[in-house]
């Protein structure tokens, strides 16, 4: 596909996101249903960072101040939850602070954003269980739970080591990735969502289906989290084990796609249950595949780059709201799980879609 296609797409996104700025206003968006209107959730929710992340990328790509002005306050809003933490503040501080504080500091050099990003990294590092060598998921009684999603959250720890010079953050991230790699990735490259360990001894117990169809299935968004997370871990460490794991997951993801290149919400659904796609899984995977294509030898690049472009083109031509200017989201047909947020628009799907298009237009900042 020619570069002009992606350039034109970036222009279309500029027009669309300008409209979204007006439509969304001060809302904290998570999902939009059939009416095309985003909800307005509490800002401690795990997806809070993705709307400001969209704004920061658009500012970086276009230079327009309206995006920066709309994004500026979000890391400060999130910081307030460290003063009065809720049950929703957990392993997902990476998703909250990477596309707010970290990208803000990266682009503008803002010192408060730097401080907030490090504060979030400290919070995440404090969730590390040294007996099991993992970062615990969620709160309440889930002391020994680990989830595949956290493979992208650990980018916050790699960043913290880089900006502070303290290797402890990086060591925690690597240990967590090793544990996830050992217990959460199957030989065929499919992934498990939730792993359970004995929090006292660190011994592995079992895995749960979580947001996937069953413990034996492979939740498509979880597979995308794993793909992107392991290639990022390789990028930060140079450890070939993580690269090979990312490749294995990528091969599984690509080979399991249906004809239109956008996965169902789980890769191992029964034939009569294949009803709902997950466009967010597709967009996350595209951004990860583009990273993989950048890193592998020349002879392997086309496998991952071509797959990424096929998926992205399908999203653009079959799943987007270009003809619905009143719709507040970009992508349709996202699915959170088989029991919640089914066939809706998801703000994180929009974020990774824009991130991927920006990469194809030369965007070089890497947040996740």
UniProtKB/TrEMBL annotation:
<comment type="similarity">
    <text>Belongs to the glycosyl hydrolase 88 family.</text>
</comment>
<dbReference type="InterPro" id="IPR052369">
    <property type="entry name" value="UG_Glycosaminoglycan_Hydrolase"/>
</dbReference>
<keyword id="KW-0378">Hydrolase</keyword>
<dbReference type="InterPro" id="IPR010905">
    <property type="entry name" value="Glyco_hydro_88"/>
</dbReference>
<feature type="active site" description="Nucleophile">
    <location>
        <position position="92"/>
    </location>
</feature>
<dbReference type="GO" id="GO:0052757">
    <property type="term" value="F:chondroitin hydrolase activity"/>
</dbReference>
<feature type="binding site">
    <location>
        <position position="149"/>
    </location>
    <ligand>
        <name>substrate</name>
    </ligand>
</feature>
<feature type="binding site">
    <location>
        <position position="337"/>
    </location>
    <ligand>
        <name>substrate</name>
    </ligand>
</feature>
<feature type="active site" description="Proton donor">
    <location>
        <position position="149"/>
    </location>
</feature>
<dbReference type="GO" id="GO:0000272">
    <property type="term" value="P:polysaccharide catabolic process"/>
</dbReference>
<feature type="binding site">
    <location>
        <position position="221"/>
    </location>
    <ligand>
        <name>substrate</name>
    </ligand>
</feature>
<feature type="binding site">
    <location>
        <position position="92"/>
    </location>
    <ligand>
        <name>substrate</name>
    </ligand>
</feature>
<protein>
    <submittedName>
        <fullName>Glycosyl hydrolase</fullName>
    </submittedName>
</protein>
<dbReference type="InterPro" id="IPR012341">
    <property type="entry name" value="6hp_glycosidase-like_sf"/>
</dbReference>
<dbReference type="Pfam" id="PF07470">
    <property type="entry name" value="Glyco_hydro_88"/>
</dbReference>
<dbReference type="InterPro" id="IPR008928">
    <property type="entry name" value="6-hairpin_glycosidase_sf"/>
</dbReference>
<feature type="binding site">
    <location>
        <position position="225"/>
    </location>
    <ligand>
        <name>substrate</name>
    </ligand>
</feature>
